[in-house]
Structure formats: C-alpha cells, structure tokens
Amino acid sequence: MNLRWTPKKSALALALCGATLAMAPAIGAGQAAGSAKAASTAVLPGDDFFNYANGEWLAKTEIPADRSSWGAFASIAEDTNARTVKLIEALGADPHAKGEARQVADFYRAFMDEATIEAKGTAPLKPLLAGIAAIKDKAALTRALGASVRADVDPLNATNFATENLFGLWIAQGLDDPQHNMPYLLQGGLGMPDRAYYLTDSPRMAELRAKYLQHISAMLALAGYADADARAAKVLALETSIAQSHATREDSADILKANNKWSVKDFAAKAPGIDWPAFFKAAQLQGAHSFMVWHPSAVTGAAALVGSVDLATWKDFLAFHQINQHAASLPKAFADQRFAFNGKALSGTPQQSLRWKRALAATNGALDEAVGHLYVDRFFPADHKLRLKQMVGNIVAAFSKRIDQLDWMAPSTRAQAQEKLKTLYVGVGYPDRWKSFAGLKVSPSDAFGNTLRAEQFNYAQQVAKLKQKVDKTAWAMPPQLVNALNLPLQNALNFPAAILQPPFFDPAATDAVNYGAIGSVIGHEISHSFDDQGAQFDAQGRLRDWWTKEDMDHFKKEAAKLVAQFSAYKPFPDLAVNGQLTLSENLADLGGVAAAYDAYHASLAGKSMPADADQQFFIGYARAWQTKVREASMRQRVLTDGHAPAQYRTAIVRNLDPWYKAFNVQPGQALFLAPAERVRVW
After folding, report:
1. Inter-residue contact 492 to 472 (CB < 8 Å)
2. Fewest CB atoms within 10 A around its CB: which of 5, 9, 431, 627?
3. In whole angstroms, what is the distance from residue 176 CA to residue 179 CA?
4. Cα(first)–Cα(last) distance of the chain, in Å?
5. 112-136: buried (b, 16+ CB within 10 Å) or exposed (e) per residue?
6. Domains of the chain, first to last
7. Vertex 156, ends 154 and 162: CA angle to 5°?
8. CB-based contact 247:297 (threshold 8 Å)
9. Containing H/E element for 583?
10. Phi-psi bin for 273: left (phi > 0), alpha (psi -120 to 50), beta?
11. How far, in Å, CA of 87 to CA of 91, rounded?
C-alpha cells in the first residue's frame, strides 16, 4: 500500500497512497499547517471533518488542466519535480558531468529533443515491429511473448495489477522461504486498468470500450498497419477473453489465494497451450526451478488462448502493445493518441503534461536511484533524517505499548507481534546501498533506444536477484518519490526523502502538526505489518499463521466492522466504496493515527502542551489528505484502487475517542459513532 507512484515497483508492498504529493502552499493560502483557527467554520467537524479541515483549500483550488486530481501529494511532487529538473538541466550544461550524472542528463536531453524524435519518425520502432511480423508459428510467438516480460508488477499494490505484457513478473523472497528469491508470475495482457473495464455491462464501460477500440485502431494506423479497424476489433476481443480469466481485485489481494508454487513441469499440466520451457528461456528465467503463480486462473486462461487464438491476432496484440508502451518516446502523434485515451477518456484529464514533466517521469523510471542520489545530495538535509528517525522510534514504541495493552490478545500472539516490531527495518530518506547503472548505454540523441536499453537493463537487474542473497534493506522506491511503503516480506519500511516536506513534515511546524501528518504516515506504514495482509507474515517475512484462533477471530470481527463502515460511503449515487478492497489501507490509517497520537503525547514527557494541541494533531492529519479528483478518475479509483477516496480516509478519526473530545463531537452529527460502534483493532 503505497501513496502512489507511476514508475512500476517490484516489491511486495503495502503503501500509503493518496493522490500525488504537494508542497507547503497546498495546506491552504495563508493557513498554518495545523492551526485549528484556520479550519472552516462553514461545517461542523462532526458532520464532515474533511471539509472542516480543508474547506478553504477546496474552495480556492482548481485541478490543473494536465492532472486528473490535485492535492497535498501532487503539489509536493510538483515542487520536487521542478527542483529536480533544474538540477538535471544544470548537469546537462556541465561539460565535466560524468558517470550517472551524465547518464541522467543525457536521458533527459534525448527525451526533450522533440525535433530529433520527429525527424526519426517510426524508424526506431520498425525493428521491433519487423520482429513481430517475422513470427511464423506458435513456437516463435511463445518466444516473443517470453521476451516481452518485464519485472514491473507489485501484486499487493491494488493500483498496479494490470500490465500490458501477457504476464507480469515480480522477483522477491519466497512466501514460505525468506532466505531465497524466486520469480512470481502474475496476470497481465490488458491495455485498460482492470477486468471490470472489459466485462462490466454499463453505459460508461461500454463507452470506454468503444474509445479503447478506436485507440487501438489509431495506434496501429499511425504505425502503418492496413485494416487497422478490423485488427483492433480482434485485439480487443482477445483482451476481453484474457480478462475473463483474470482474478478480481479482492482475490488478487488475498495472499493465501496467491500462494501457489508450481514447478516448471507443473505448467504443462496446469496451463497447456504454451511451450513453457521455451517461454521461460526467452524471458531469461530458464534457471528457475519453481515459480509462485499469483493468479493461476489467469495463467491457465492466457496459455489456452495462446494455443487457440490465431497467430495474426496475437501478432497484432504484440504490435499494438509495443507501440502503446513506447508512445512517449515516439513522434508527437503517438504520444497525443495515448494521452487521448489514457488521459482524457480514462481519467478525465483535459490537457497533457508539459514535455519536461513527461521527460522527468521517463528519466525517473529508467534511472530511478541515479536521479534519487542526485536529489538527496542536493536537497535532503541530514538533520531531517535524524529527526524523522527519532519520530519513527517514538511511534514504534507507541505501537508496541498499544499491543501490550490489548486485553483480547493472547501472550503467544503478542510475543510474535512484538518480535515483528523489534526486527523491523526502517529506511528513512534513501537506501543504505545505491543501485548501480554501470553498463547502461545512454545517448543524448536516442530517446527510443534509451528507453529500450533501460528496460532491458533494469529487467536484467531484477532477474539477477534470483542468484543473489535476499536483501532485507533493499528499497522499492527512489528517494525523489513522494510516498511511503511497507514491505511485509522484508519486514521493512521505506520513507523516501521527498515525502519529508510540508505538509507532511515541516521543521517550522509544531510537534502536534508533524505527528498528525508525517507521524500518521509513519504509523500507517507500521500498522501495515499488522493489517489483514501484513499480519499474515512473521518477523522474518514468512507467510505463516502466528495467531491463536481466538485472536484471529476477534481481529476479523473488528475488521468486518471497518469493511461495513467504508462500504456505506458512496461518492456517487451508483458507486460505493469497496470496503473489502480498501480494508488494508483503512486498517493502516486507523492504527497509524492512533499510534501517532499516543507517540505525540508520550513525546511531551510531562511538558505542558498548547490547549488546542489535539485539534492541531487531527487537522494536521486531515490536511495531509486534501485532494480534489475529476469524476472519471474518481470512478476509476473506486473500482480499482486499494485506497478509499481521501474524504473517507480522513473520516477514520470517527473511530478515535480523543477526536470526539478535541472537537466536541455530539450525537446526531453525521460522523458520530457511539463508543460501542467505534472500530478498535490496535
């Protein structure tokens, strides 16, 4: 569960997710981050705490034309990106820049060189398409499908199940074997976000399918394919068949359903239709003896389609997805067409991002930690890391104390929970060891080639992990990303440097505000180790039931109350929040705010606190989630995202007794819950 990020992660991750972070002004024009006096007086906190805390910001803020949403996350990211680009441009102008600095500068420069990209036209793409055209039989098709695999899927990040390649790959330690890395195979093959977009019988989904069909046809036509409409129809029909075998979002999030270990020989019996040894060889996985198959029905279904669907359709499928995935580094017509569907149709975003923003996103994706190293050296003060580590220690201690005070938990379960906290790795700011990009060729005049080489380089690095020791301290996010992450297999947390900015962390703000904002983020990630998913892993990251039956029954009973609470929220008359899909994040929010609140009070160590300190704490939490979202994007998120919309995440405070006292919340107000109805887990 992560806050949200665009470059694909490759780690089992429970992260924070929101919109896409933002800088200090996002708190509101002229508002102090946690000042209770700056809150709205137009609505009672007990009726709508999100609007109470953020009403002035909501009234004044417009979503930028190139965004599907805007908020605290987005504006921090915008500020971070602007500073990072200036740094990269300065490196580009420095004739003495070398090593990774030169790689970063050249990758960015090539992407920004639109004149060269236009002059080359589709020439860089033609070798890829020629290779697809040369496929003469199913054996060659199998090799092409295997070669297209990329390690770009995080199965526990509900916003990221879909991959355009037929299967997704993830390299991580085994669910039952924390000492060795192994490959995980996941469902893929869809150009739209989820199976629901292909299979739901509603006017909106039918409209999106029609637009997607037009998009496939337009991309094929731009690349010079004849009969593009007819080809597109067959590609869409194939993807619809693939979608029919896909697991739902809820099933994908169920780790026990994902714990399927197949030997290479098992694939032939359980998923006939593909020459699996040939497939794995083409995917550079011939050395793997067994796989974790996260979505068995999807693997079986896709393999059957490889065996039954005609070769021409599969070739057009491969061609379209190669064009679509690399549209950003092709001439403007390709990038514009991709945005017309992915941006306008799917997300309701009226305007494409400026070129420099897209260039930075591509550079971050290709050279993530190289950019991050440059960012940290320039923009992340050492004292921020020290202060955050202290806060983390305080919140871990508060969470530990809450575990000790649980009257429903058996001593054996409590001991295991405490062991998880004691062995938890917490990364603050940046990784202990930086990834190397030595050997990656980057040209200042070859945007398309740079993208392909970076994909292949990063994939090779992921596959190489199969022969390496498990690294419990490895990061799954680069430092310049505004996000935070829990990695249950590693029993580790990542807090990238870029999130350690206002309104999440403000050195000038009160402790109450900082504990309410970044403290709740820290608590959220700690809580993920004990949510409905994270609680299934022990201190070594092994999938193991360490609970007594009575304790788990109690936990599930309380979790079911939270499912019901969130399922009652309806952002649209025809669409409700999925309380089961969002359960992990809601549990983490609940535990995170509670632990951060306790940690703040413990940090006072007997010192007096301002009279409105508790109000500052809760408003600091609410303002960290200020967000505005376009309708199309909101609908997509409700259907596919493991995180509830921000206004409902803010309302988690209705389960916390101190919030009622801080704001004098009374029966009859919309968010009021009787004490017996408040969900209490950790």
Report:
1. yes
2. 431
3. 9
4. 18
5. bbeeebeebebebbeebbeebeebe
6. 14-82+384-432+469-677 (3.40.390.10), 137-309 (1.10.1380.10)
7. 55
8. yes
9. helix 583-603
10. left
11. 6
- Max Cα–Cα distance, the chain, nearest Å: 78
CA 338/CA 351 separation, integer angstroms: 12
pLDDT bucket at 163, cuts 50 / 70 / 90? confident
CB count within 10 Å of CB 161 equals 29
Give DSSP secondary structure letters for 432-478: SSPPP-TT----TT-HHHHHHHHHHHHHHHHHHGGGSB--TT--SS-
Calculated CA dihedral for residues 488, 490, 491, 497, nearest 10 degrees: -100
CB burial class (10 A; 0-12, 13-18, 19+) of residue 354? exposed
Residue type, 608: S
Kindly state the helix (H) or strand (E) to which residue 269 belongs, with its residue range: helix 264-270
Overall size of the chain counted in residues: 682
pLDDT digits (tens, 9 = 90+) for 400-431: 999 999 999 999 999 999 999 999 999 999 99
Helix runs in 61-193, H state only: 72-92, 99-112, 114-120, 126-133, 138-147
Query: How many Å apart are CA 575 and CA 381, to the nearest integer?
Result: 44
Residue 281 carries which side chain, given as an amino acid letter? K
Which token pair is 75? Answer: 């504006």
Residue of 504, 674, 527, 661 lying closest to 594 (CA atoms): 527
- CA torsion through residues 500, 505, 511, 513, sign: negative
**Cross-strand bridge partners of residue 290:** 263
Calculate the dihedral angle through the C-alpha atoms of 394, 584, 634, 569, rounding to the nearest 10 degrees.
-100
Partners of residue 485 on adjacent β-strands = 15, 494
For 504-518, the DSSP string reads T--TTS-HHHHHHTH
List, for residues 566-581, the tens digit of each pLDDT value: 999 999 999 999 999 9
Rounded CA-CA distance 433/427 in Å is 11
Q: How far from chain centre, in Å, is Cα 515?
A: 24
Identify the top-confidence range among 147-156, 223-232, 601-610.
Answer: 223-232
Place of tokens 């995180």: 643
Residue 302 near residue 189, CB atoms below 8 Å: yes
Q: Which of 75, 60, 61, 62 is nearest to 19 (CA)?
A: 75
CB 329 within 8 A of CB 612: no
Task: Name the residue with higher pLDDT: 434 or 163.
Answer: 434
Q: CA 383 from chain center: how many Å?
A: 28
How many other CB atoms sit within 10 Å of the CB of residue 29? 10
Of 105-109, 305-309, 592-596, 678-682, least confident by mean pLDDT is: 678-682
Q: Are 596 and 653 in contact (CB under 8 A)?
A: no
Q: Which two tokens stand for residue 618?
A: 């809760």
Helix, strand, coil content of the chain in percent (nearest 5): 55, 5, 40
Ramachandran region, residue 259 (left: φ > 0; alpha: ψ -120 to 50; beta: rest): beta
- Of 166, 307, 317, 312, the closest CA to residue 243 belongs to 166
Evaluated on CA atoms 183, 318, 320, 331, the torsion sign reads positive
DSSP string computed for 567-581: HT--SBTTB---TTT
